Amino acid sequence: MGIGLWLVLRQPEEPTKQPVGLPSAGLEKRMPIPSDKVIDYNKLKEGTDHALTDLMEKRKAPYGVEKSVDIIAGPDESIKVGQETVRLKHILDEVRLNQGEILETDLAGKPGPKAGDAFGIHVVQPGENIWDIHFHLLTEYYGHKGIDLSPFADEPDRLGYSSGVGKILKFSENLVHIYNLRKRTLETDLGLISPLSKIVVYNMGRVFGLLQSIDYKDVDRIRFDGETLWLPAAQQ
Description:
By secondary structure, this protein is α+β, with helices and mostly antiparallel strands. The protein has one domain. Helix content is 29%, strand content 19%. The protein is built from seven helices and eleven strands. The chain has helices at 41-46, 50-60, 88-98, 102-108, 130-144, 164-172, 204-212; strands at 5-10, 38-40, 71-73, 78-81, 84-87, 119-123, 176-180, 185-187, 198-203, 223-224, 228-232. The strands form three sheets. Strands 3-6-9-7-8 form a five-stranded antiparallel β-sheet. It has a three-stranded antiparallel β-sheet with strand order 1-11-10, with helices on one face. A three-stranded mixed β-sheet has the order 2-4-5. The radius of gyration is 19 Å and the shape is globular. The relative contact order is 0.18.
């Protein structure tokens, strides 16, 4: 009898400090943003731009999400929420800088996000927290696959052990970023979320790559040690 391992996923490494002399993405000079590159959340919420609504529905369809993600945008587009407009590239540069990637990739001549990459945006609403936001996305994803996720699927069992869904949610906190639209900076404390002034940013490829690698019938066998998510192979 032996134990094999498959589906081994690790959290990103700890962010490194910003190199001395490297300008912060937060100090980016604001330049005029072409109106055709702006995805206006206000118009989506009010339903006043049918073409934009249709575009978002078309972009969401392959992922099986509807309300859990408000916008899906490319790295060359911008997001407008209320009176605040921000380039998605600016947010992604902040993420790369926070992870110590800006200097390494730029000096090596390696590209950042590609034009075809997709990023999901959830505009934080009153009363929401990061756990519930993730769980809503997970519920929609599995619902699209014909799996009815129980409202209690993320809760610990009677002995206090985390469920498989709970472990996925905990691990997924490391795959998203919270951006403060008013302060123009990333938030490091996931517990501090303010409505309509902050957005949750998903790298759709990474998040859904994780979900697609997990067969739901095996979800309760998932293990998570605080850093690595894995699935032990079945014993023979």
